[in-house]
Amino acid sequence: MADATNASDELYPIAVLIDELKHDDVLLRLNAIHRLSTIALALGPERTRDELIPFLDESVEDEDEVLVALSGELGNFIDYVGGPEWGHVLLSPLENLAAIEEPVVRDK
Question: In this entry, which stretches build a coiled coil (predicted)?
């Protein structure tokens, strides 16, 4: 029972960060984007590939500053998805970001 309590205590901050990714407040979303590596590390490579990346892929309808931060974070995400052999899972969200009309997002 103590192990289950410790596991849920450790995952609580991750749940808060994931909730912040969905929050209406741009500053909270921006803060969560800058902590994506923490979320991915806690989820592990498989859940990052199967859950986090698809969620981020659907999140490209956001404020420019959030999208710029997201593109910067995703550029360093190879290790979090399982290494170079899984790098292809990052292509879809990166392609979507590259297709954004705003040059500041696209150029990042």
Answer: none
